[in-house]
Amino acid sequence: MPETVRTAPKTLAAASIAVGCVVFAIKLLSWWVTDSVALFSDALESIVNIGAALAAFVAVSWSQRPDDDDHPYGHHKAEYLSAVLEGALIVLAALLILREAAVGFLEPRPLTAPWLGIAINLCAGVLNAVWALVLIRYGERHRSPALKADGRHLMADVVTSAGVALGLVLAVVTGWSILDPLLAAMVAVNVLKSGWTLVTESVGGLMDAAPPEADLSRIRRAIAEHCDDAIEAHDLRTRHAGRRTFVEFHLVVPADMTVARAHVICDRIEAAIRREMGESVISIHVEPPHKAKHENLVKV
């Protein structure tokens, strides 16, 4: 793997910690200026962002450790553990926001310097949006669950900030102070949904769930288009573990085919799969004609 590809996830994860601290400071300032429950709730979520970024940094660093005797298939699933933790932290943030919203409902209070606070909070939202897009795009391109989860987490925070700003504008214009805690509660529900989605997706990775149908189609096509001279390919099984894709299937070849020729076909198929999926571990079980099943075939 090129050095830049190997080190970039760790660098981005470290940068996320710094970005999270800056965003938290900005949001804390916006709350201090306005005394808004919604802005305080938004700042609370940023504390979780920092913790999630730390978890992502540890997970990415661990996942890049080379295979060893105790972990012959690598350490890539460490990223899924981080993503599960991030999801749990998002859920915790939602519960904290709901608590603050309840306090605001019981004791509504007027906002001070709302326009300045809204402007400050929007600056934090813009910074989060830019960084979230960087993490999501890199995470998808290089199949890094931890970075993608961190990016989605930040994007949920962007939605939070935008909703908070809109709600506070309405509260100031209408004079309805109750909109402040109401908005905080609505934000909490959105954040809770984001956390639940992240946890379920990450648990699927830990449980070796099948990859998306689009990835399966690419793998099937690579096999079908490069298995010339073989009789059939069947019983395909595949899964993702972070950046690495595991693929295994049976390849039935003619009885008179030499081992060398069968090996050439396998090499050709493996190269095609790696062109499609990147870093992959591929196991092909070569079988004689009487093992042909004529079912569970690999087809495009």
Automatic annotation (TrEMBL):
<feature type="transmembrane region" description="Helical">
    <location>
        <begin position="39"/>
        <end position="60"/>
    </location>
</feature>
<keyword id="KW-0813">Transport</keyword>
<keyword id="KW-0812">Transmembrane</keyword>
<feature type="transmembrane region" description="Helical">
    <location>
        <begin position="12"/>
        <end position="33"/>
    </location>
</feature>
<protein>
    <submittedName>
        <fullName>Cation-efflux pump</fullName>
    </submittedName>
</protein>
<feature type="transmembrane region" description="Helical">
    <location>
        <begin position="80"/>
        <end position="98"/>
    </location>
</feature>
<keyword id="KW-0472">Membrane</keyword>
<feature type="transmembrane region" description="Helical">
    <location>
        <begin position="158"/>
        <end position="179"/>
    </location>
</feature>
<dbReference type="Pfam" id="PF16916">
    <property type="entry name" value="ZT_dimer"/>
</dbReference>
<dbReference type="InterPro" id="IPR058533">
    <property type="entry name" value="Cation_efflux_TM"/>
</dbReference>
<dbReference type="InterPro" id="IPR027469">
    <property type="entry name" value="Cation_efflux_TMD_sf"/>
</dbReference>
<dbReference type="InterPro" id="IPR002524">
    <property type="entry name" value="Cation_efflux"/>
</dbReference>
<dbReference type="GO" id="GO:0006882">
    <property type="term" value="P:intracellular zinc ion homeostasis"/>
</dbReference>
<dbReference type="InterPro" id="IPR050291">
    <property type="entry name" value="CDF_Transporter"/>
</dbReference>
<dbReference type="GO" id="GO:0005886">
    <property type="term" value="C:plasma membrane"/>
</dbReference>
<feature type="domain" description="Cation efflux protein transmembrane">
    <location>
        <begin position="15"/>
        <end position="207"/>
    </location>
</feature>
<feature type="domain" description="Cation efflux protein cytoplasmic">
    <location>
        <begin position="211"/>
        <end position="288"/>
    </location>
</feature>
<dbReference type="GO" id="GO:0015093">
    <property type="term" value="F:ferrous iron transmembrane transporter activity"/>
</dbReference>
<keyword id="KW-1133">Transmembrane helix</keyword>
<feature type="transmembrane region" description="Helical">
    <location>
        <begin position="118"/>
        <end position="138"/>
    </location>
</feature>
<comment type="similarity">
    <text>Belongs to the cation diffusion facilitator (CDF) transporter (TC 2.A.4) family.</text>
</comment>
<dbReference type="InterPro" id="IPR036837">
    <property type="entry name" value="Cation_efflux_CTD_sf"/>
</dbReference>
<dbReference type="GO" id="GO:0015086">
    <property type="term" value="F:cadmium ion transmembrane transporter activity"/>
</dbReference>
<dbReference type="InterPro" id="IPR027470">
    <property type="entry name" value="Cation_efflux_CTD"/>
</dbReference>
<dbReference type="Pfam" id="PF01545">
    <property type="entry name" value="Cation_efflux"/>
</dbReference>
<dbReference type="GO" id="GO:0015341">
    <property type="term" value="F:zinc efflux antiporter activity"/>
</dbReference>
